[in-house]
Amino acid sequence: MNKKKIVFGVSAVALAATIAGAGLAAADPSGPPPYRQLSGVGSDTTQDVMNGLAATITVGGQKVIGSYDSTGSANITTKDPAVNANCTIARPNGSGAGRSALLTSLQASNGCLDFARSSSLNLAAAAPGLTYVPFAVDGVSYAITPGSAIPRKLSLADLKAIYHCDPNYVGTGPNYAMTVYLPQAGSGTRSFWQSQMGITDADVVAGIYPCIKDKKGTTPVQEHDGRLLDDKSIVPFSIAQYQSQSSQTIADLRGRAILGTVDGTAPTVLNSGFGVKRDVYNVIPTNKVATAPWSTVFVGPNSEICKQTSVINTYGFATSPNCGDTTKQTP
To answer: pTM for the full model?
Structure first.
C-alpha cells in the first residue's frame, strides 16, 4: 500500500450483528463422564479444536479432556461437586486468564484445573513451573469488511504503521479515519499480534497509540468475532478460526469479515506457510510432564493429541512439527 492517507466514505455500514449482549453458546463438557480428569480453560482461539479433541480422545475407554469455552455462563464447575465442592469458578476468558486460573488452582492444590489453553507463549516466571506444549500452528491475518477502503493486500510494514497510529494511514484524532482494534485484555491473539506489530501492551494501555481500541463502545472486543467490524475498522483474526467458522465446523461469528493478504500470501487453510504464524499450546504443570494422564494426552509426538492430525486440520490448524515438545518451560 502506498503510504498515503486512506479516505473513507461519510457514513459507515451498520454492524452485521449486534455484539452487545450477544453471548456465544458454550461447548463445555457434558457426559459421559460430565467431569473429566483433565480440566482446562483459556484461549478462545483453540477452544473449538480442543473441544473436538476432547470428544475424540479416550483413555481406557473414557473421555479424559474437559475443555471449557472462554465465553458463556459466568461460572463453570470443573470437577464433581460431590467430590470437590470448591471447583465452581469464574469463567476465564483468554490465554492470560487461563494461565492465571491454572496457577491459582495449582497454588491452592485444589485439583480444579489441570491445564490451560494458550495461543501465545508466555515464559514469565511462574510458581509452580509451567510447560507450554505446542500441538498446532495457526496463522493470524487482519480482518476488514468487503466495503472497506482498507486494502485487501497489505505488507507487514503497512500493518505495523497502522498499529503505530501513523497518521498517513489512520488519519488524525480525535476522529480517526480508521478504527484500529485489538482483542480484549488477556487475549493470546492480542499478545501475539502486538509482538508482531512491535508494540507493547503497557504502551497500548497507557494510550501511547491512541487510535487503538479494545472495546466497541463499552463492550470488550472478543477475538475472532467479526461482527464488530464496519467499513472503517480493522482487527486481527485467527485464520484457523476464520476457516472453521466458514466451513460451519464451529459457530459462524464472522459477520461481514474478510481476511486480508499479508506480504503477498493469501490467508488459506493449513497455515504453516503463512508469514504471520504461531504455535498454539496446552499449558501443563512442569511437575506433571512425566505423569499420566498429562504425559499420555499432551507429551511427545506420539501423545494422544499429536496423533489426531485429522481433527487438528478439520479446525483449520496446521499440524506442528514440534507437537508434544516440552522444552518451553517457565523459570
So the answer is: 0.87
